[in-house]
Amino acid sequence: MAKILPKKDVVIIGLGWTGSIMANELTDEGLEVMAIERGPWRDAPTDFPPDYMQDELRYRVRHELFLRPDQLTFSFRNRIDQTALPIRSWGAFMPPNGVGGGGVHWNGEMWRFLPSDFVLKTHLTERYGAAFLPEDMTIQDWGITYDELEPFYDRFEYLCGTSGTAGNLRGRIMEGGNPFEGSRSRPYPTPAQAQPFSHTLFGKAARELGYKPFPQPSGNLSQAYTNPHGLRMGPCTYCGFCEWFGCSNYSKASPQTTILPYLVRKPNFSARDHSEVTRINVDKSGRRATGVTFVDSSNVEWEQPADLVILAAYTMFNVHLLLHSQIGKPYDPIANTGVVGRNYTHQTISSVNGFFDNKKYNFNPFIGSGSIGMCIDEFNGDNFDHGPHGFVGGGYMGQVQTGARPIESTLVPPGTPKWGAAWKTAVKENYLSTVKPGTGVHGSFYAYRDIYLDLDPTYSDRFGRPLMRITMDLKENEVKQNKFLTDKFAEIIKTMGADKLAIQYRTAPYDISTYQTTHLNGGAIMGTDPTTSALNRYLQSWDVSNLFVLGASAFPQNAGYNPTLTVGALAYWAAAAIRDKYLKNPGRLVDA
Amino acid sequence: MDKNRDDRLRFHRRELLVGAAYLTLGMSKAHATMIVGHLPWTPNAGNPPTAALPGPWMFFTGEEGRAIEALADCIIPPDPQTPGGKDSGSAIFIDRQLAGPYGRQEGLYVRPPFMKGTRSQGHQSEQGPAQEYREGLAALDRSCKARFEGKAFAMLSDSDKDAVLKGLECGEFTLDGADGKAFFAMVIRDVQMGFFADPIYGGNRDMAGWKMIGYPGSRYNYLDWVNRHNERFPLPPVSMTGRAEWTPQTR
Lengths: 592, 251
Fold this sequence. Notes:
The complex is a heterodimer of chains A (592) and B (251). Chain A is an alpha+beta fold. Chain A has a single domain (3-582), classed as FAD/NAD(P)-binding domain (3-Layer(bba) Sandwich), CATH 3.50.50.60. Chain A contains 14 helices and 25 strands. Chain A has helices at residues 17-27, 44-47, 56-61, 102-105, 120-128, 146-160, 197-208, 255-258, 260-263, 315-325, 406-409, 421-430, 476-496, 564-582; strands at residues 3-4, 8-13, 33-36, 74-77, 85-86, 168-169, 172-173, 214-215, 225-226, 232-233, 269-272, 276-282, 289-295, 301-311, 342-345, 348-355, 374-376, 395-399, 434-435, 441-443, 452-460, 466-471, 500-504, 521-523, 547-549. In chain A, strands 1, 2, 3, 11, 12, 13, 14 and 25 form an eight-stranded mixed β-sheet that branches. The longest helix of chain A is centred in the C-terminal third of the chain and has 21 residues, at 476-496. Chain B has 251 residues and is mainly alpha-helical. Chain B has one domain (53-106, 124-251). Helices cover 42% and strands 1% of the residues of chain B. In chain B, helix 2 (62-75) crosses helix 6 (180-196), helix 3 packs across helix 6 (180-196) and helix 5 (158-170) packs across helix 6 (180-196). The longest helix of chain B has 26 residues, at 2-27. At the A-B interface, helix 2, helix 3, strand 5, strand 11 and helix 12 of A face strand 1, helix 5, helix 6 and helix 7 of B. Strand 11 of chain A pairs antiparallel with strand 1 (34-36) of chain B, so a sheet runs across the interface.
């Protein structure tokens, strides 16, 4: 029997970006808030101090900061007719664990989605006709518009001190910024980061080809910044250890640097770490959450009753917990019914490495930051006419190289032996003169009827619960999109002056063992119709009105950008709905 | 009087034991805590990496050690400027990794059933890396002895070694009892990883790998350099433990 704790007003599952934002907003209303986090408390002095943080083996190769698969993993297959097998070691994505969540080890790219991304189905159908879309594509509108979300994008940008150059200021197109972005109400809080040599070379080549390059909006700060909570961040030192690593320098936006030191001082906030929520409890009617059950590190089971439950874990764990708690109807791709597990998506990424003459080019590639880079947006979303190309979607592309940590970044030109004297010579000659953009092409990933999440019939976790099963493949639309974008990208790298290119297209089948980004989305999506979405436009569960589900699990499909800024903006948007509407009159905020 | 003394001793010992248990718990980071009112910070609560110490093999047998050193020198041959895989410590690196949590697949999902999947489903073997090395190295020596008049891999001439490895790579030289191609791919990856990982893990001795490519190590701050384009960064590398000349006692 679980031990029952005194009731709280609000219980939050997961203390990453969205949990921290929501906790901060709801404690401002005077509510008693308890956050329950599966992993450890993490902070720079204890977990990634400057004297040993720059350890590629420990953090990148051995995954120090991520969840351990023996604690919880997923099973995976490409198609419905295959048997799913467990992900035994992380590959395609890196599930976060611990306080700060993915905000600890992300790169800090701060992209807004395009206005058309939020009304995708309507927009594409109006422009190209319904027949232009693949038959099994299940894209939807979000139920919210860019203009509605803009104030919350702005809030999150100012929380983080985001460094960038505005491209569209209150409707005016600004030189040097992204001319395709939606209108923003204010400039970025801090100017764009400095750009190393190869990044500026990309900008120059892109301009020569007629594009409008701009610096990637960055959560690694170009200068010192004091945020609205009075928390101070330092300028980024371009150390080259950002993604996969924690920042020792208080320069990368994270819950630790922007919210937690302020939040934790509030007397009506408390948190528990090393405590895994195993179930959201509902009353007999099944329409009302009564709190959560969690297990601490001694395997003791506790029940935390609460009036309001906020599910704020990573995409995958949100969906997993909904399935285990039997909240919302599980999605069935054959019958095309149910909502939980529906419209699961990832990101379609690829890259082109460029090998330059080492007598003319020295890039000092180890100088970088997580979200440094020069990018173009001509081929994102519907910024170009898809009519002649036979696919939909797109992405930004850029020289976004985050450093050159030597285990991963000692590349050799195509055709070089993989070992021996010739390999050794090639590594030596190419390290300083290679451009390795990493996620150079960052494409959208749209939703399909047979790409989804459900529970596995065979494999179970340490509590004996079924693992969640991923059924995921790359469809022709995304493969075509990636080929088109990657060729455009290769042209720019060639124009930069590269002698040799290594072009890596994204192709089917979807491979669970190679890293592609941690941008997993969907499975508990927002929308306007309870038969095709798990949440309403305020991220409130259609079925259980005192449950809100934050995070990218709400994305109906993925755009050609990194998700975190939209995830943070949606958390502020949901918090505003709870503060302004729900608390005054608890219940469904939208009539179905 | 003796009894009193005994009691006192017993008391002291109990106190000591309780104290020790408290200390252990206090230092363990893996237990649930409540966070209220302030950031949970304790002095010296960091978790620095454990250095791989020089000395005898911790995982490999003598025979395996000879084979892995020979492999390391084929994958990264020595040249006049830069030592090879053996002298730069890649074999020690792999040995210490296999003797530790990595070798045991610690933290990975190892629940049955184990089934062979498609390529896109990733690694599905029940064996961890330690077991794969044990079996792979034994199979390599067995196959070499059968082909080359009883000579183990390390005893072969340089050209025979190269021929064996090229054969493994393209699948023409097969091993009895191991997937030779996959095994060699793993050895290549690990030898090269040791050459470029921080020297604290036993490879990349004296930062030989970093010096070779021009990587300046864990310098942390390039604010003065981000805007200096196409100009060679002039400083030598530093590792997590500094540079050899800073700590002469470890030489």
